[in-house]
Write a structure and sequence with these properties.
Length: 167
């Protein structure tokens, strides 16, 4: 070994090595939700919830093991709106969201696919908020204001599809 190669070796051994960066893998979740409407004397209205972030949106929740996605959408929609009766009309499509969990998996990166369905409920139906479902408020919103009221912009194509079906 020559003197210069010894110096080179010492220099290299003195270099600080950075610990490998751990790439965080997201947790995948599948959810389903519903846009519920009813026909009134004043026209079509949609049921909306004020979520745990204080934003107006639509009910949704996790698909349980062995549960069909349509069943999950109906169950979550009934629970979060306090409804007893809804009728499935058709699929409205799917959105994908990414976020950091605040409740169960605190701080973890979540990748969630949410399938939405259109449901109808009888005209005399009342909404009942359920705080245990992290729902702050519920309201019937006219079809003319539903796009403006919905906070989450990724819901626009889902809402537009529902409005198109109901024309």
């Amino acid at each position: 070994m020559t003197l210069s190669s010894e110096k080179q070796e010492k220099r290299e051994s003195k270099k600080k090595t950075k610990p490998p960066v751990k790439k965080e893998l997201p947790i995948y979740e599948e959810s389903a939700g519903g846009l519920v409407f009813k026909q009134t004397k004043r026209g079509i209205v949609f049921a909306m919830i004020k979520d745990s972030y204080g934003k107006w949106t639509f009910p949704k929740g996790h698909v349980e093991a062995g549960e069909a996605i349509e069943e999950a959408a109906a169950r979550e929609t009934l629970e979060e709106l306090g409804l007893e009766e809804i009728r499935l009309l058709e699929s409205l499509g799917k959105i994908t969201i990414w976020f950091r969990d605040r409740f169960v998996k605190k701080g973890k990166l979540i990748h969630k696919d949410i399938s939405y369905f259109l449901f109808e409920t009888p005209e005399d139906t009342f909404l009942i908020p359920h705080p245990e479902e992290r729902v702050q408020k519920v309201a019937w919103v006219s079809k003319n204001k539903v796009l403006q009221m919905s906070f989450y912009k990724d819901m626009i194509p889902i809402i537009q599809r529902a409005l198109e079906i109901l024309k």
